[in-house]
Amino acid sequence: MIKAAVVGASGYGGAELIRLLKAHPEVELVGLSSRTHAGQSATAVWPQLVEGPPFTDLNAAVAEAEVVFLATPNGVAMELAPRLIAEGRRVVDLSADFRLSREVFEAWYRMPHKAPDLLKEARYGLVELHRKELAGARLVANPGCYVTAASLALAPFFAEGLVEEALVNAASGVSGAGREAAGTAFAEVNEDYKAYKPAGTHRHTPEIEQNLGRARAQGRWLVTWGPEAPARVTFVPHLVPMTRGILVTAYLKPGEGIGTEAALDLLRDFYQGEPFVRVEDALPRTKGVWAANTVWISARMDARTGWLVVFAAIDNLVKGAAGQAVQNLNAVYGLEETLGLAREGVWP
């Protein structure tokens, strides 16, 4: 059994990690930590849990662990990961600390990177594109939630050299903002729908561009610190008054010869055999992937204007966070990739 601990287990992503890791047949969950809940039971912090390790301080939580999931705010993992790795543990980081180059991270996240020497060792954990380099990794950078949906929807078209830019409109449930985010009270978000951080200001923008630029340069299988080609994205996120889920609607102009059926065929061929990618004629819905580690993708060509519209839906807390982290665990340890993860959702 792989002994695992979750640091930052009182956030929404942490709660999903607890649920998934407890059910994983090859994992023993040995530690949970939180800055504010040390000494409390798992059930007291998350009433949906029947049992689990009690919340403790960081040192006690990781004492027995061989792999540590860091579900912490940006800037924390870069302080913890060097120590954990030096002690012989593997780390799966759900924050942005190891997803980008030092220069890009510091420019977009407005903080100095405190572990630049570890950046080159980090492997980017979008398994469908990076599977071949994840086995045995000591440090995995779990992708962002918007990034996962947008990148998986668009990577095949960039990898085929059909486009170098796209418009990405995306909508997320409120849990994407985190458990303590300001402005997410019921009275603030109910009966409201709004854009935020539009037109090149959201911090997931460079990560989406990075992934699509690598796809243009490298093709089907990507290397984390490999070559990139120019890729530009106009990204506009929206907040939707629902608990969880992301729907991406992306627009690109691939040129003549790409209609709806050709686009769907390209997507099916690119993701053939992928257990957590669902390419269908039917348009994706967030309810269709609730609690699943699946991305549901479809496409439509507007023949009148030449715009191809690509849709993708994920559960932001599962495929966009905790489920993807468990999928990365499976890839790192060479386990069956679907262990502990659901391909089908539940009706909320």
Helical fraction: 25-40%
**Number of spatially distinct domains:** 2
CATH superfamily of the largest domain: Dihydrodipicolinate Reductase, domain 2
**Chain oligomer state:** single chain
Largest sheet features: 7 strands, parallel
Structural class from helices and strands?
A: alpha/beta
Order of secondary-structure elements: EHEHEHEHEHHEHEHEHEHEEHEEEH
Radius of gyration: 19 Å
Proportion of beta-strand residues: 15-25%
Outline type? globular
Question: Largest sheet, order of strands side by side?
Answer: 3-2-1-4-5-7-6
- Just give the CATH class of the largest domain: Alpha Beta
Task: Describe the overall structure.
There is one protein chain. Helices cover about 30% and strands about 20% of the residues. The chain is of the alpha/beta class and about 350 residues long. The chain has two domains: about 1-120, Rossmann fold, CATH 3.40.50; about 145-315, Dihydrodipicolinate Reductase, domain 2 (2-Layer Sandwich). It has a seven-stranded parallel β-sheet, with helices on both faces. A seven-stranded mixed β-sheet has the order 9-10-8-11-14-13-12. Helix 7 links the parallel strand 6 (about 125) and strand 7. Helix 1 packs across helix 12 (about 320-335). The mean pLDDT is about 95.
Which helices and strands occur, and which strands form pairs?
Blueprint: E1 2-7, H1 12-23, E2 27-33, H2 42-45, E3 55-56, H3 58-62, E4 67-70, H4 77-86, E5 90-93, H5 102-109, H6 116-119, E6 123-124, H7 127-130, E7 139-141, H8 145-159, E8 165-172, H9 186-189, E9 194-195, H10 205-218, E10 232-239, E11 246-252, H11 260-270, E12 277-279, E13 295-302, E14 307-314, H12 318-333
Helix pairs in contact: 1-12, 8-10
